[in-house]
Amino acid sequence: MLRSPSRFVRGWITAAMVGSVLVGCGSSSDEPTGDKAEPAARTDVTVEPIRAATELTDTNGAKISLKKEPERIVCLFALCDDILTELGIVPTATNSTLLAHPGFLGEEKARKVDVVPGGFIAPEVEAILSHKPDLVIGLGDTHGKLAPALKDATTFWAMQPETWEDSVGYLRDAAALTGRTAEGEKAEKNFRTKLAEAEKTPSDRTALIIYGSDENFGVATPEGDVTASLFPKIADYPWKSRGVEGSYSLEEILAQGVDVLFVETMSFGDADGKLSEKLAKNPLWSKIPAVRNGDVHEVNSEVWAKGRGTRSLGIVLDEATAALR
Prior knowledge:
It is globular, with a radius of gyration of 20 Å. The protein contains 13 helices and 15 strands. The protein is an alpha/beta fold. It comes from Streptomyces ruber. Keywords: Signal, Transport.
């Protein structure tokens, strides 16, 4: 059976497996057209200006107050790393491995960022405070318990993203607090433009994102999974959350005729091997159209499952739209 876990379990599974300034590098979608071809219609995307602030109510209603723009930021989950990279900031310390991805800092530069010991579930408070952070950013339902221990020494910001709109909101809030307003506006516009382009020509193929480390894997649904929230407007994505105890069976997935399958393999302890290879032992697996036709894509779980920010989601859109053609 496929489990459709609660948002806490999803947050735990997707991250339980890694201030100086960097120069951001963007990409342009303005490809030259041939002399005889008519220019393609441009997607006109505008974003609201971001105003710098030391106090704000964030996208989920939490009040954040700082004495000044933060210079030393510790990240306890990957969305923080994603946001800071978009703003041209390197975290003082992190417990995510997202920064090693070539779309972020790359392995060599990422090795220079200190790692918070204790793992995703229980990062060590003493180690966090040893970096003398101005701001610590964590996942609310996992790291909220750290707030009392951090209260008198630093500001703790608990984020709880469930959709891509939440992630954009947190990007804007972080841009305001760090004074990186132009960088925030640019990152938001780049992402929204890419999403709008994908939504203009949606695929009629049925897609599915699954995640896990063994046969007991989960289905990512748009209601509580940031990456999955992109899919309903770019593909046929008929997967809805069934709550904490809900589940999908392989028979149901087979009946939907999945054309393109994206697989996020998670690693825990001694677990190894690709999730798709483990599922190949089930006779129903080979009957899924995506499996039959060789359209199963093992994706980078650091980006697809954990990143959740506009840079990660931009990579997801690039890879997903290419696979869905």
